[in-house]
Amino acid sequence: MPINANNPVSPSLPPSINLHLLKECNARCRFCFATFRNVQGRLAFDQVCELISRLREAGGEKLTFAGGEPTLHPDIGPLLEHAKSLGFVTCVVTNGARLEQLLDSHAGVLDWVGLSVDSASDEVEEALGRGRPGYVAKASRLAARCHEVGVRVKLNTVVTSLNADEDMSPLVELIAPERWKVLQ
Hints:
Elements: E1 16-20, H1 45-57, E2 62-66, H2 76-85, E3 89-94, H3 99-106, E4 112-116, H4 122-128, H5 135-149, E5 152-158, H6 169-175, E6 179-183
Parallel strand pairs: 1-2, 2-3, 3-4, 4-5, 5-6
């Protein structure tokens, strides 16, 4: 059944919604499920705003922008503004590609950042296709910046054979997330 906030028999949405804005990404993670091979293009800005409005009207409370890499979307800031203006708790799940710029311009409308970090080792990150040398240090700096500007941090880690035996405790303590999502 299509979402229709004007239809009283329409089921309520779960309170937390992931919106995959685009399929483009700057990483090539070997385990990525969000490839969207059959998806052509993306919705126009006005269409995404309408979708966000309908999601809120239908009972959505938290809106997580995902991808691909959502910080690569040219309108991520204005989309966050729109979602926040409707009363959504906002979140971006990111590998940090353009997070610094987003924090500079839109930290006031961003409640959560989900940082994707799978290892404390740049070599493992590179082998997984997630990052290049310096990825772990950059993620740590971005987490610190989030804490400074009042954006809550969640850590997202995909466990694979390359990192399954790794003790990430020192990195987790450094990043100091409020939540840690561990995925297989």
